[in-house]
């Protein structure tokens, strides 16, 4: 009998319409996150936006002989993109406490409210500080949503489908990025307020998430750990679609008993036995950003302008990469619970390494500071960017969120995941704030910089990342950490 068959017998489940609706509605938080990632790059490439908020950048852009790599180098312009992630970093720890004390469902509701206010303020901004306040409000929404939603999806999913269900979050992130690129392509022709429409449409997925936060159920784990065992067992029956949930209920109940004895989860998290999932969770999030993906996603239109595309062509190229991103994430949904996490991550490292090195080589050889690539060379760069995005989308993108959400024991789950989320937001902020300056100073070598990190990531996965496919969340310690040749030394 295979592990998967054994788990099916231990924790029986079947598809129900209600649980699928819960998965999709919760995953709209990913759509919101993706829209925020995708919209900023297109908006910062719009002349109307630059004239109103960044006139010096616009003047620099108009000079035909201006340095290709430096024309967008402006700290305030970068702050427009990065301020969201700094706010998300700060709010993720408050979101962790909200998840533990009030549950996953109310935390998702709070996220949707922040998103709604953030969209309203940023789209109606009259000055740069109002613009940044709107982005900060959106950042609070990202902090609360990215803490609660992956946990919600991991806890509500049956073990044999946990990977695919959790990746719905990342799939909706990619759909959000694609939708943002389409919006930017359309609104770039709506003068002079196209950028307001782009920022304001963030309210649409926020409304869906708000409605979803009311419709979805609380997770059985959250109900049981807060002492509501009757409701927890009833909810477990409802989402599994079967009456026989005793084994899973007892397992969650036992984990909750242990969790209640831990009065200071952050202190517990610092103990030696908690180090393996903490180190893995943080490094996965840090490495996710050091692939260079957000440098490409934030600034895709700017990047394509740098290599010689005109404004409309650069936005259209960003739309193409968005389509690739969405379709490639589907690969992960179908295969993550079949081939496992490690295979997808290692394959992607090879493909990303080749792509980043080749992009850097082309720019180094052919893009001068004041010239441009030929159409064929520029088209080849787009193909390489698509290859890079493709491999990221079925690996480090979704699995960077999935693995931390499934590896922490219940007593440190929300605290540990808060560290993972905050690490992601910290490095997202650093990359967003520094990328245009790095592009200016490092030029083509920036792609070799990211390629070097991708090589380190492959070694990390090969030697230190255990496989977590088909392992129940609350049995990770026994079946994963205590069996790993390195991490078993940390276990009590």
From TrEMBL:
Compartments in which it is found: Membrane
* Ranges that cross the membrane: 15-35, 76-95, 107-126, 132-153, 165-183, 195-216, 278-302, 314-336, 343-367, 379-403, 415-436, 442-465
Q: Domain named Major facilitator superfamily (MFS) profile: which ranges?
A: 22-469
A GO molecular-function descriptor: monosaccharide transmembrane transporter activity
Which GO terms of the cellular component aspect does the record hold?
Answer: membrane
PROSITE patterns annotated for this entry?
Answer: MFS, SUGAR_TRANSPORT_1, SUGAR_TRANSPORT_2
Q: Which Pfam families has this protein been placed in?
A: Sugar_tr (PF00083)
Membrane disposition:
Multi-pass membrane protein
**SUPFAM superfamilies xref list:** MFS general substrate transporter (SSF103473)
Q: Which keywords has UniProt assigned to this entry? A: Membrane, Sugar transport, Symport, Transmembrane, Transmembrane helix, Transport
Q: Name the protein family.
A: Belongs to the major facilitator superfamily. Sugar transporter (TC 2.A.1.1) family.
This chain belongs to the protein called: Major facilitator superfamily (MFS) profile domain-containing protein
The organism is Populus trichocarpa
The major lineage groups are:
Eukaryota, Viridiplantae, Streptophyta, Embryophyta, Tracheophyta
